[in-house]
Amino acid sequence: MTVAQRVVMALTVVALSACASNGSGGRFGRGLADAATQPLEDLNLRRDPIPPVLGEALANPYSQRGMDTCMAIALQVRHLNEALGPDQDEPPPPRAGLTQQAVEALADAAVDAVRSETTDFIPLRGWVRELSGAERHSRRIQAAIQAGRARRAFLKGVGMRQNCAPPAAPSWFRPRPRNRINLRWPWG
Prior knowledge:
The protein is mainly α and 188 residues long. The chain has helices spanning 3-22, 25-36, 38-42, 52-59, 70-84, 98-120, 125-132, 134-161. 63% of the residues lie in helices and 0% in strands. The longest helix is centred in the last third of the chain and has 28 residues, at 134-161.
C-alpha cells in the first residue's frame, strides 16, 4: 500500500467516524460513493440522469405554457429548486460551528483524496472521457443546469409581473395589495 493510499484510508476512517458522530454521514457517504465510482462515469458505463424538469428547461426555457397562475409558477420553481438547489435570492443557510466546519472540511478532503486515487489509474483520462461520450454527457448536464437556472429566473420574473408571492417571485418581492371593490355609492 502506497503512502497516498494510507493517507486516503486514514482520512476516510476519521471522516467516517466524525460524520457518524454528528449525523452528517449521508452527504459524506454519497460523496464517497460518487468518488469511488468516478471511473465508471469516465468510461461512460454509469450516467447521472438529467432530471425531467431540467430536460424541459433545456428544450424551452422561456415557455409560458401552463404558467397562468401563481400556484403553477410556484410549483415549477419548487421543482427547479429541488433539482438545482436554492436560488441566489434565497437567504444563506445558518453557518455551522467551528467543529462542524472542521468535520465537513475533513470529509471533503477525504472524498477529494478518494476521487483523486480512483481517477489517477485511468491513463489519458481526458481522451477516455471524450472517446467514451462521458464528456459530451457532462456538457449536456451543464447545459441543462444553465437552462434550469435561466427558466427559474424567467419564471420568477413572470411571477412578479403577475403579482405573485414568493416562491413564484424572488424572495424579496412583496406583492401589491389587490384593489378592493368600493362599496360606497359615488354620489353619497
